[in-house]
Design brief:
Largest sheet: 7 strands, mixed
Number of strands: 7
Low-confidence stretches: none
Order of helices and strands: HHHEHEHEHEHEHEHHHE
CATH superfamily: Vaccinia Virus protein VP39
Shape: globular
């Protein structure tokens, strides 16, 4: 089963969420993931190199995103969540969210319409809206962000699994467009380092490029990349550390952690920030 479009990656990741949900010791439960992933998602995981062995990273990312979103909604006074390139994420249906919270999913029509059709008989936990839009089009992006920005006072923007597929120029344009809206207070992202990007390209690069979905963004400066666009790091969670905390480490990770004890501080910090989840705040 080949990835033929960027939207296929949503089925891929949904399969990992379904795999976690089936565990008796699941760290989160997404009862909709298996239905949304479908047979296509399951086949993608089975045919991707090290497909099943890589589940830990996506599962850890999902759990940490869940935690940060829930904490901000409960304690940060968030009145709007905007999920860009939302794919098959089902958080409005599965998280314990306040009924008055507004949640807006934004994505390409085919994948987002598929999700809302599949879940049309399910109730969301909050006020939900699906917006069909191609965020690569500057005019569309600006009009949408202006409309959403004017309708909220404390908005959280979520881009899970999106930035790695963009160029640095596209990420910069998105960062600027988001910062132009004063009500967009927080931006939750996941970020790869150049070392990890090289590893991912070696593992999956050919398959993703054939599907017009190459992985491209892994800034050497990490979250500092976003400072010139008006965003600063408010919180950083190392994916490796979080996987250890959540007991979802990749095989042989204990050996890497042991070896890092004898490495210089700079090397340990590079290793810690190889992959992470960052909550950006307006500078």
């Amino acid at each position: 089963m080949e990835i033929t479009h960027i939207s296929d990656t949503a089925r891929w990741v949904a399969t990992y969420r379904a795999m976690e949900t089936e565990r008796p010791d699941a760290i989160f439960r997404d009862p909709f993931a298996g239905r949304l992933a479908g047979e296509q998602g399951r086949q993608i995981v089975e045919t991707m190199p090290r497909g099943r062995q890589s589940a830990w990273a996506m599962i850890t990312r999902t759990a940490v995103f869940d935690e940060i979103i829930s904490d901000l909604v409960r304690g940060g006074g968030v009145d709007l969540v905007v999920n860009l390139a939302a794919g098959l994420d089902a958080r409005p249906w599965r998280l314990d969210l306040p009924p008055k919270l507004r949640w807006v999913d934004v994505d390409l029509p085919d994948i987002l319409r598929y999700k809302t059709d599949e879940l049309k008989n399910e109730r969301t936990k909050c006020a939900y809206e699906a917006v069909y839009a191609d965020l690569r089009e500057p005019d569309t992006r600006q009009a949408l962000f202006s409309q959403l920005g004017a309708s909220a006072s404390r908005a959280l923007i979520v881009t899970e699994g999106l930035l790695v597929y963009l160029t640095a120029e596209q990420v910069g344009a998105l960062a600027s467009a988001l910062h132009a809206q004063p009500s967009f207070r927080w931006w939750l992202i996941d970020l790869a380092s150049p070392r990890l990007l090289t590893m991912l390209k070696k593992q999956w690069g050919d398959r993703l490029e054939r599907g017009n979905s190459p992985m491209q963004f892994g800034p050497a400066e990490g979250t500092s990349f976003f400072e010139k666009y008006g965003w600063r790091e408010g919180q950083f969670r190392s994916q490796l550390e979080e996987a250890h905390r959540l007991k979802r480490e990749m095989p042989m990770m204990w050996l890497w952690r042991f070896m890092m004890r004898f490495s210089p501080d700079a090397k340990r910090e590079e290793f810690r920030r190889m992959s992470g989840i960052a909550l950006l705040e307006r500078a």
